[in-house]
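Thread: fe (ii) ion complex, take 2
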Amino acid sequence: MKIRLTTLSENTAGKPGFSAEWGLSILVEADDHTILFDTGAGDVALRNADRLGIRIPSGTPIVLSHAHADHTGGLVPVLKRIGNTRVMAHPAIWEKKYTRRPYEDQAADISMPYERPALEQLGADFHLSAEPVKIAENIWVSGEIPMVTDFEAIEPIFYIKENGAFRPDPILDDQALYIRSNKGLVIVLGCAHRGMVNTVLHARNITGEPRVHTIIGGTHLFPKTEDQKQNAIEALKELGVQKIGASHCTGFPAAMMLVQAFGDKFFSNNAGSITIIDDADTTDD
Ligand SMILES: [Fe+2]
Ligand SMILES: [Fe+2]
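Output below.
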């Protein structure tokens, strides 16, 4: 199986001429399947695709890792370009979502910035599922990720608003993409809000493949305590991860810890990065 992961939107421009934004979008090509995993916050994913000379095929299915606007804000520009397509996500993507840190005067709305009818008019055909969805012989959308480790938790800054009242957001909509390659699992993370290690353990259960080859995307390690970061890294080492491409919500301190733990198995996955997993793995970070 040949897999090509092209990062179209990320917080850092990885090469000259690329644009960056706080967001994430990764174009996944696995054999003859193409999937757009997240859309970034605006039109950066399309601008970077143009820069790379990539034409995202019409009707490419879209997987939304979760509702937050830095992953879904690019939906309108993407739909305008690729036309009618399937959009796979968790039903909780329609919740009104907020963040509020203790020092902030008011909550910030970080919901998906569009209403469903407007997206449907542009050709989005929503397939919503809380369960894992097998979208091809060796490709799954994770479904809801069970939180099983004792060191991963959702930060108490995320809220949903229901009937005018805020309550903590369990971010049930947080999902990942799982690819079973002949080298082991390739796991594409959005923000890993429900825990990077939980996401990997779920991948092994869903796919039946115990080997973890590559993890790429947002690890959400940046707000974690030193102990939580260390526990997550220890768990990844035990799982035998072969390549880890940290993006988006990883943060410099956690990235440094990952470099120390993984050496040249670590790479910085930024806007414009291309990772190829086949007989001879390459990444051009
Ligand atoms: Fe998020
Ligand atoms: Fe994010």
